[in-house]
Amino acid sequence: LAAFRGIVSAEDVGRSKPAPDPYLRAADVLRVRPQVCVAVEDSHWGIDAARDAGMKTIGITTTSHASALSAADRIIGTLDELTPELVEARAAPGPA
């Protein structure tokens, strides 16, 4: 657990996914704005929660088909594809 700057569980929030509460709490724990965060999710509930929190999203098809993750900003097939460059590209501000 020392590798993580913060951990948020269902017990830490009033509502769980698909509500954005877990993601908003995580951003608060990390002291960052949700808009600069990238959430990696394997379910449409998680994608919806992160997007409702204002975060960019990367869907990973380890447990859900890509069609279920279509709301994600990017979809990958395995964690091997999750690179720092991919996360940074998703976190970069979009056009005004």
Care to describe what's here?
- The mean pLDDT is 92.
- The chain has helices at 21-30, 44-52, 84-91; strands at residues 38-41, 56-60, 74-76.
- It has 96 residues and is of the alpha/beta class.
- The chain is built from three helices and three strands.
- Strands 1-2-3 form a three-stranded parallel β-sheet.
- The radius of gyration is 13 Å and the shape is globular.
- The chain starts with 20 loop residues before the first helix and ends in a 5-residue tail after the last helix.
Shape: globular
Q: How many strands, which pairing sense, and closed or not: the largest β-sheet?
A: 3 strands, parallel
Termini gap: 38 Å
Give the helix proportion (percent range).
25-40%
Q: Please tally the helical runs, counting DSSP H or I stretches of 4 or more residues.
A: 3
- Structural class by helix and strand composition: alpha/beta
Radius of gyration, rounded?
13 Å
Uncertain residue segments: none
**Secondary-structure element order, N to C:** HEHEEH
Q: Order of strands side by side in the largest beta sheet? A: 1-2-3
Q: Can you give the mean pLDDT?
A: 92
Question: What is the beta-strand fraction?
Answer: 5-15%
Give the total of beta strands. 3
